[in-house]
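Q: What residues go here?
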């Protein structure tokens, strides 16, 4: 159900909320593309404050000790598999590298999410036909 607040996201790390089951918290897991290439690590989860659902994973790559890392948002819809230490997505590393640039000033703007979802080929999660993926209980293993 769409409300005027649907689509407003917050980073989980900026809230007092936690993931109920620690085994389902995918932060700090490696992200792999559909061919097994390394993309980076899940650094945070962007959560819809109204519906309390994860909508994007924030992935960081490169850098040293957190300095100079590139960040990008990947829709949870792209996740195909979650293992104990990896998150697999249905995109290529090259496609992720070409995603709209991460801009911390635009993190809470609905239009930003729409452009990212469109880039990856997904419709808006606030749309009437949207079906939330089975996150985080995807096919376990590969």
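A:
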């Amino acid at each position: 159900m769409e409300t005027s607040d649907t689509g407003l996201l917050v980073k989980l790390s900026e809230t007092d909320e936690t993931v109920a089951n620690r085994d389902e918290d995918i932060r700090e897991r490696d992200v792999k593309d559909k061919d097994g290439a390394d993309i980076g690590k899940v650094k945070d989860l962007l959560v819809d404050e109204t519906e309390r659902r994860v909508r994007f994973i924030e992935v960081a790559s490169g850098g040293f000790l957190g300095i100079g890392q590139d960040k990008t948002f990947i829709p949870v819809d792209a996740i195909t598999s979650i293992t104990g230490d990896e998150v697999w997505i249905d995109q290529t590393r090259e496609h992720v590298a070409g995603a709209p640039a991460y801009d911390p000033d635009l993190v809470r703007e609905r239009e930003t999410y729409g452009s990212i979802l469109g880039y990856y080929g997904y419709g808006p999660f606030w749309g009437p036909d949207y079906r939330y993926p089975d996150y985080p209980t995807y096919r376990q293993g590969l």
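A: Context that may help when evaluating the design: Confidence is low (pLDDT under 50) at residues 137-142. The beta strands are 9-11, 30-32, 38-48, 53-61, 70-75, 79-82, 86-89, 139-140.
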